[in-house]
Write a structure and sequence with these properties.
By secondary structure, the chain is an all-alpha fold. Helix content is 86%, strand content 0%. It has four helices and no strands.
Length: 93
């Protein structure tokens, strides 16, 4: 019994280490790196724009208090779609 368990453990360990070493080649990583960086940069820009629109909505004087709450909830809950709506319906005026 102990021999079989040892063989099973060794084969599992060998399979795991071979799977790790036989993964994605290093060259593929360097091709993926620009894509990862662009995605990260776009994510940061969208987050900053989203935060800027929430702050703009909270500071804008022409809203009634109920409208302000609705716009902030729309920006927070709907995300990018709320950003587009707010930009074209409020900020462009």
């Amino acid at each position: 019994m102990a021999v079989n368990e040892t063989l099973i453990a060794e084969s599992i360990t060998r399979g795991i280490t071979e799977g790790l070493s036989g993964g994605v080649p290093e060259a593929a990583f360097f091709f993926m790196l620009p894509l990862i960086m662009i995605t990260l940069l776009l994510s940061i820009l969208v987050f900053v724009a989203w935060l800027w629109m929430i702050i703009d909505c909270a500071k804008r004087n022409r809203f009634r208090s109920g409208d302000r709450v609705v716009w902030i909830l729309l920006l927070v809950l709907v995300g990018p779609i709320g950003m587009l709506l707010y930009y074209f319906m409020v900020m462009r005026k």
